[in-house]
Write a structure and sequence with these properties.
The protein has three domains: about 170 residues, FAD/NAD(P)-binding domain (3-Layer(bba) Sandwich), CATH 3.50.50.60; about 160 residues, D-Amino Acid Oxidase, subunit A, domain 2 (D-Amino Acid Oxidase, Chain A, domain 2, 2-Layer Sandwich), CATH 3.30.9.10; about 80 residues, no CATH class. Helix content is about 35%, strand content about 20%. It has about 500 residues and is of the alpha/beta class. Helix 2 crosses helix 10 and helix 15 runs antiparallel to helix 16. The radius of gyration is 22 Å and the shape is globular.
Amino acid sequence: MTHSTSHVPLSREQSLARLQAHKRFDVIVIGGGSTGLGVALDAAARGLSVALFESHDFASGTSSRSTKLVHGGVRYLAQGHIPLVREALRERSRLLANAPHNAHSLQFVMPSFRWWEKPFYGVGLKVYDALAGSHGLGATEFLSRQETERALPGVRSQGLSGGVRYFDGQFNDARLAIDLARTAASLGAIVLNYCRVAELIEDAGQVVGVRVVDVETQQSYAVQSGCVINAAGVWADALRGVSQPSAHQAPPAKLVEPSRGVHLVVSRDFMPTDTAMMIPKTRDGRVLFLVPWQGHLILGTTDTPVTSAPREPEADQAEVDFILSEAAHYLKRPPTRADVLSIWAGLRPLVQSAAAAGSTKSISREHTIEVAANGLLTVVGGKWTTYRAMSEDVLLHAIAAKLLPAGTCAASVTADLPILGADSPCNTADLTAVLDPSYVQFAVEYEFARTIEDVLARRSRVLFLDAKRAEKLAPAVENELIKKGLMTSDLPSFVRLTQQYQMCP
């Protein structure tokens, strides 16, 4: 099988050689998640020279572990965050237009089991429609009991009185991250995964560059820029504390309060439909989604404050039990631990708030931008849906702080910029029990893949959908990577990872 493509990115070796030759860039971005990649794309689209460094793989942290929804935020509407919802609805429309190969509209139904739920939530969703205006995806409808059962086969019928149907969006988060990296590269940006920023370089108290280490070879590079942007997500505070003029000076106050979200994946047989179920208020007041995705059903998510930020966060027993018990409350056939095909957790970089008092419900989902005294620009918070608007805001702050070259265009051009990726085989199909070698070839040559995990977790999404199947495919993927000149030895560690995704602690 062959695949045509509109742009072949530089190889890793070519990118590193260009990095060494160029040495100074208009913008350095630290972090290869949604925000960092969005900033790199926006800056490159304005004609700036850009280098982006990611210590692991693109989207290997928070940005591959979302609920796969492009949404305005119905729950944020209930909290009164009208400007945030309005912006997100506008950005939802733009994302669906710019990446139609990745993002699409999705029907949701809120089932009603109490007499007041349908009119109460229906009125709120009518407001949601009104805020969307011309960016709406479809009108909210009130459903009878029979219509709700047809829309949600598998929903518990006992006590069901009807429902409300509304529209939002869905996407493939890690795939979009790879597509953003490809698009930024097509505009001249150097984007490097497995390239760790080890040090901020300062001159006269100002950040003037970074020292990066190629994780694969341990070779280090000094790269200069007057604009260094910290988009490291839940790890952003660690980078803010790297550069201190005095060992006796206290580290800066935290910007990030991590929250862990857990998702379970089960067979689509539990709810065989292309319509998602949204439960706006579970028995303990949280929101629960049951979302069809890639031929499976995602159940989640939790929202649990945490104090540490491991690269591979794990679900705990209480989170798994909560999701299963709540899903059982709304489905005819209750899923059990034995039905779970994959378990994955992600950390959200929520903006720290003194008023939060240990609860993530009062911590802001909006983003915050800080320009430190040494010139380091840090951005935290936000969500996938608004990544483009966040990126635009970051560069506006960089211009205002005079971190970018004089004359830099203040207007973003990404609102209508098509995103590459429609040519990828992993965008249109999933890996079966037999590996198609062209998947791995394309992932390495066009999509920056370096490891088994890159291929099976983020270029394709097998690990997130069925961990046992990912384990079975891993040896064949390793063989193909070796054929491509990547002398990988990460099979044992990947097998351990698949077991983590299979196990409920």
